[in-house]
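Escalated from tier 1: glycine holo job.
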Amino acid sequence: MTEQPNWVSEAWQQVTQKVNRTSKTIGANFPHASENGTYILAEPHWWTAGFWPGLLWLVYQDTKDAALKQLAEECEAKLDTVQNEYYRLDHDMGFMWTLTSVAHYKLLGNEDSKRRALLAANLLMGRFNVNGNFIRAWNPWTEGEDNSGVAIIDCMMNLPLLYWASEETGDPRFKSVAKRHADTVLEHFIRNDGSVHHIVRFDPESGSKVEALGGQGYSLDSAWSRGTAWAIYGLTLCYHYTKEAKYLETAKRVAHFFISHLPEDFVPDWDFRLPADIDSPKDSSAGAIAASGLLLLANQVTAAEAPVYKRAGEKILESLFRNYGNWEGSEEGLILHGTSHFPDGKYTDNPLIYGDYYFVEGLARLKGYKELFW
Ligand code: GLY
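Tier 2 regenerated the structure:
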């Protein structure tokens, strides 16, 4: 294990104790946002389904607690019904099966998990639009809605499932699709200043760009902090798998935008670019995602560059631990003050399961765990 900041072992102890306690109430389910100390459960089809089992695997790799392993396995098995419901599957298959099946396969070599993850990778690859070189994000949300040309920045975290599938099978098709989608992101999503668009709509026939949309941020030209975090981490993973400098250069540019917009407590607001009269809520989940990504980025750059990203990742995680951690008692949810969907008014000051997951992942990275589920 590498040398770790002195608060990390205290934080890890809090995490393991709390996860042990709350695993007894959450069980083999799919929590999303916690309200009044209890996680509201989502359907297994929802994009967040992988985070609780993924978090259980993160703790299991350290404690080898068989009860946590069993819950993670039960969650994974429940996702089989989702895999058979074609119409409800969207691009978030990457999030869902990376943190369940790929994690299980990488840790314990489970062959059923490998099969499930490869099936998910094939289904994800099937969403690739060859005219516009993008992975279609969503299915229609409402009857008759046409989402066939929509791609979103979050998909950068779905690409690792494709890179993994190519490494695992020796078949380059998955990786080619991932790279082509990532190149579209470089061209159409990343702004010169390192901020990002959440949504870009393409003409699904001609493949040309139609428009960018504000999505979960404040407006078209604002800077949604979680989208920025998805870009940092996803681009860093693209570099990790391809070693193509353009992904690293862009990951660094987006990271510089993110770091330079952090407030005094190092935990971002929901959007970095807001009119002065808007009282922005925090999004602790954006901080946790970016922190874990920044720590990985620190391992990909030169020794001279690394401290910038490492220090920023550590500062964010330490602030989340000390100022946002919910460690006492049996309340579910580790990290307070996440914002799920501000424009829709959904969960704007809550623990979010992905904030919890990435906080624990970042902490595990600081403890020296090198296994990359992504
Ligand atoms: N992937 C959806 C979100 O970040 O809220």
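The mean pLDDT is 97.
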